[in-house]
Amino acid sequence: MPNRDVVLWNLIILGYVSCGGSKFLEEGRKLFDVMPERDCVSWNTMIGGYADGRMEDMLRLFNGMPQQDVVSWNAIVSGFLQNKDMAHAIDFFERMPERDCASLSALVSGLIRNGELDEAAIILIRLCGGALLGRACRMHNNVELARVAAEALMKLEPESSTPYVLLYNMYADVGRWDESIREVRMMMKSNKIKKPSVIVVSTEIGMLARIANSSNESGFYGLQLV
Fold first, then answer.
1. Where would one find the signal peptide in this protein (predicted)?
2. How far is CA 9 from the centre of its chain?
3. CA–CA separation, 194 vs 66, rounded Å?
4. What is the pLDDT of residues 131-154, one digit of tens each?
5. How large is the C-alpha radius of gyration of the chain?
6. pLDDT band at residue 225 under the 50/70/90 scheme
7. Who has the most CB within 10 Å: 21, 22, 75, 162?
8. Which residues pair with 20 in a beta bridge?
9. Cα–Cα nearest to 47, from 23, 6, 82
10. What pLDDT, on a 0 to 100 scale, did the predictor assign at position 101?
């Protein structure tokens, strides 16, 4: 295919790789090897193909890239997660020179799929902090992750109401509003934490309740439909 540009080469290689199976993957690799010119898409496509069980080939190709971009790093992390290699996935994530939203999402989602809730919560707390933790848990729609993260945050910030608000809002997100009030208030009472304020605002679509830290009424942490 001497007259075809790199975009067409990439599309054909992607077609082979997407078919699955070693035969099609090898055909894609043959085209990759004879391409007159490669870009990051070319390399990342093959890395993604090798992620399906061909870890040594995936690593060899990644290490042979002239320059890895964030997509390359995301692909290698996802490859390790896909093959249940949590240690290498976290190691490569930590070594990434730059990250985007997909980087954190891929790692946390992969850890959750593999039952590593504690590790996912620790990473979320360390990278997102309390302020963005609730948003991250909502993104993954995972109440159990919110619980694990909140419990870890309680140890780090024993006098803060933020982790309790996180749990409160996550329960409410999945329709367990009454349960969230009872459980979270019991936890706060047990740990001698001031209750957050619940500010209810009437709207055309119903009642919206905002959960605010009682020590700072202007700092809203969540917005829920009642």
1. 1-19
2. 31
3. 55
4. 555 555 665 556 666 666 667 667
5. 23
6. very low
7. 75
8. none
9. 82
10. 78
Residue 181 has pLDDT above 80, yes or no: no
- List of domains in the chain: 6-113 (1.25.40.10), 117-225 (no CATH)
Query: pTM, whole model, 2 decimals?
Result: 0.64
- Cβ of 188: how many Cβ atoms within 10 Å? 19
Q: Looking at residue 116, what is its pLDDT?
A: 82
Tokens 């954190």 belong to 104
Take residue 47 and report the two structure tokens written for it: 């890395």
Report d(CA 141, CA 65) in Å as an integer: 36
SS (H, E, C) the chain: CCCCCHHHHHHHHHHHHHHCCHHHHHHHHHHHHHCCCCCHHHHHHHHHHHCCCCHHHHHHHHHCCCCCCHHHHHHHHHHHHHCCCHHHHHHHHHHCCCCCHHHHHHHHHHHHHCCCHHHHHHHHHHHHHHHHHHHHHHHCCCHHHHHHHHHHHHHHCCCCCHHHHHHHHHHHHCCCHHHHHHHHHHHHHHCCCCCCEEEEEEECCEEEEEEECCCCCCCEEEEEEC
CB 146 within 8 A of CB 167: yes
